[in-house]
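Board notes (copied after class):
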Amino acid sequence: MVAYANKQHTQGHGNNRGSTFNDNGSGPLHLGPTDCFYTLDITSERTKVKGYCTFGDPDGDLIFTDFRGASTAEGYLEGMHDVDAGTGKYSGIQGTMTFKCKFSGNNGELQCTQRLDYKLP
């Protein structure tokens, strides 16, 4: 949803839902749900986003993050998640997750590559 727009500047908010896939075909968060909400700020020079995500696994355990990112000259959206907390097997988790996304559809769909670096107590 766009909250403000003119020819030079757009601000808004939205959400993304999807699933994660681990390149190995198994592991943390493989085939788990994701749910993110964000704010955005767009000018002719760049796009910036900030938001929060919940990543889950098939067992129902969750990881909570906050993120920020910006557009690149190559047309990607890149940034970093800070891991805030987790439930179940992820209780006490600490770490970061980098992301690099490209738009892949006509309705704002994203295809993202992410790397979660974490430690558990």
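Comment from the instructor: Residues 34 and 55 are 5 Å apart (CA to CA). The beta strands are 2-5, 9-19, 33-43, 47-56, 62-71, 77-86, 94-103, 110-119.
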